[in-house]
Specification:
Helices cover 42% and strands 28% of the residues. It is α/β, with parallel strands linked by helices and 107 residues long.
Length: 107
């Protein structure tokens, strides 16, 4: 386990495992262990079960789907980027977010 967050909105612990490489079925088994441990030792009364997240540099959608299917814990895998998107893409996303926030605050 690399990171552990207490998500106030979800009222649960979020366990994050960072992988410098491709997602494997062994990563799913390992992530199954972390929320089990967190549930037994760290979850407080009234909290929801922990959620597990594996961030890796490559993810095969089919492998992730079958590796997590049927496990009782909420776990998922996602890819991360080691470089930022180009400046135009970032500027466009920031502009759309700013507009959405302005519309929301006007309501």
């Amino acid at each position: 386990m690399d990171l552990l967050f207490d998500h106030w909105g979800l009222r649960c612990l979020v366990v994050i495992d960072l992988k410098n490489g491709a997602f494997t079925h062994a990563d799913a088994r390992q992530m199954h262990l972390y929320p089990n441990y967190a549930r037994e030792h760290w979850v407080r009364e009234g909290e929801n079960p922990p959620v597990g997240l594996i961030l890796c540099s490559e993810k095969d959608e089919a492998l992730a789907r079958y590796a997590f299917d049927g496990l009782p814990n909420n776990a998922m895998a996602g890819e991360y980027r080691i470089t930022l998107p180009d400046e135009e893409l970032l500027a466009g996303g920031l502009g759309r977010t700013r507009q959405a926030m302005e519309v929301r605050s006007a309501l």
